[in-house]
């Protein structure tokens, strides 16, 4: 079902697109010279029976436009949005008092908006350079170096095929070319390259084999649940704590979550909250829309 706001906006956009054409048919050269005004959020764009529609109202509509309107130019959007707000105003005024459903929806929306504003404020103040550095040191200060591996593999269905490929490699065949021609795994087209990985990132038989290999070595056939692998260890290294910049986003997300959780717990502890026992409520009533008509 088409949302009412989208329907109104679509109608308003049709009006807005037609307005420039109508203006061109009636305006003289002198009429087209329009003096630009200094706009603020309080600038009144229209008044409907005494109710002002301001630039701030239009900006908020623009920020939440459906995707199909996002690419329209601003000179089309502005009159279209104003027309939508005018339509909403006259319809809302004709309605008079809000229905019980609308009042309840408005209460929920106000709570949601207020909660989102609080969360955004907490996040904005929580993620600082000092907080990031402290979080980094907490997580990685005692991080011990671990061995990481860069390997390639060829995945085939049978042990016999794996042994055949190993024989070709021992005869001087190129590993990457064999992988492209024979591997059934997703890395085959890329020459079998798996990139860098550390302990616990590969299935155990694969990891166990790599752990015993020397750089540049080729493994014997390794069986996993995916099939039979021929593995080449391209390179290995000892890796310590990653640079701060590499984990900045991860640490920032954790700082944000911690800040919001801490603030929420503090507010919950300070609040007076009375709950009834939900066991006495029929859960199916959650779907009974007629309860909104009281």
General description of the model:
- The chain is elongated, with a radius of gyration of 32 Å.
- The two termini are 25 Å apart.
- The chain is of the alpha+beta class.
- It contains nine helices and six strands.
Q: How would you sum up this structure in a few lines?
A:
The chain has 294 residues and is an alpha+beta fold. Helix content is 50%, strand content 14%.
SSE blueprint and pairings:
Elements: H1 4-26, E1 44-48, E2 51-54, H2 55-63, H3 74-95, H4 100-126, H5 129-140, E3 146-156, H6 159-170, H7 175-182, E4 193-197, H8 204-211, E5 222-224, E6 227-239, H9 244-270
Antiparallel strand pairs: 1-2, 3-4, 3-6, 5-6
Order of helices and strands: HEEHHHHEHHEHEEH
Strand proportion, as a percent range, falls in 5-15%
Sum up the overall morphology in one term.
elongated
Taking the alpha carbons of the first and last residues, their distance comes to 25 Å
Major beta sheet summary: 4 strands, antiparallel
Provide the low-confidence segments as ranges. Answer: 18-24, 26-30
Output the radius of gyration: 32 Å
- Calculate the mean pLDDT score and round it: 87
Structural classification: alpha+beta
Strand line-up in the sheet with most strands:
4-3-6-5
Helix content: 40-55%
The count of helical stretches stands at 9
Got a strand count? Answer: 6
